[in-house]
Amino acid sequence: MRRIFLAAALLVFAACGNKAGVVAEPFGALSDGQEVQLFTLVNSSGAKVCLSDYGARVVSIFVPGKDGKLDDVVPGPGDVETFEKGDRFMGCTIGRYGNRINHSSFEIDGVRYNLVANEEFGGEPVQCHGGPEGFDRFVWDSETFFEDGVSGVRFHRLSPDGEQGYPGNCDVTVTYSWNDDNVLRIDYHATSDKPTVINLSNHTYFNMKGSKCGYVMDHLLQVESDVYVQNNIQRCPDSLFAVEGSPFDFRTPHRVDYRVDMPNKHLDLMKALSACWIIRDWDGSLRKACNLYDRGSGRGVEVWTTEPCLLTFTGRTFNGSLKGKYGPIDKYDGMILETIHAADSPNQDRFPSTVLRPGGSYDSTTEFRFFAK
Predict the structure, then answer these.
(1) Most Cβ neighbours (<10 Å): which of 164, 204, 312, 322?
(2) Are 135 and 96 in contact (CB under 8 A)?
(3) CB-side exposure of 174: number of CA atoms within 13 Å?
(4) Among the options 84, 338, 341, 367, which is catalytic?
């Protein structure tokens, strides 16, 4: 299947050349027979983003390094079968609620809603990323566009009332757009006919070295945050601490692994640099969250978002068993840069609300601004 993806990608790239636009092609079928598509967004320089309607997900991002050569900075599968049966969250849109809700339940207006749990920690049920049948498990409706030099795809689905325990028919649109400045923009929009909670994000793993991947922990990371979240045993927020003197102080650029051996309760619990930061001076406007840079390739990405938090995970659970586009995915071959509301926000008033009510709308934007130097 890896060879099929690469061959198909080469055909698309050859057809597009450096002409900006969108190309759609078959991407195989799920085990239940549903057909899946692959969309390739190309800008005027030839840089490309590949998306799938299965999970409204990112499959590949080809951007130049300091040598000007394009390479894929997304370690992950290249076929729909592996997305379905392997690591289901790679590259996908996560929802209805991204990350975890403790006790797999929450309350709105005095009504308790019990969710379908897909994890358990310390004897307590937890729902993660929308449950066992979250947004990543569905083939979304799709509509391509090319407007003013910007190519993109709008993915849409209606999450029905009661899905995975969530109240309300939730109408969701996720729009990916790709421009000539190598900026991948993701706009999320949702409405609901009942009070509900929503927290959407993207779960793409990045490695700025390109398709050869390798140890991502030697990338330089800078995070616009003075505060990090320490988790409890359910992997949900427990305490907030200043980053000063901690392994999570990335106010200036450091290697990702520069303090991974430092004694720290959160590191001990999560077994690696799986961290959530509160973005400095958050007010809901589009602002910089972080910068990730590989000195060898010269590739980097700035992440800008309207979300209040940045979460990362550095792939400690990869062990070579998952087949990627370019070979097995090994430990620390990639890291997520997930813009999001804090986990368990429906149960913790100290965080910005994730409640969506009828007549209102959920709107969120994240931009991945790729560069080379």
Answers:
(1) 204
(2) yes
(3) 29
(4) 338
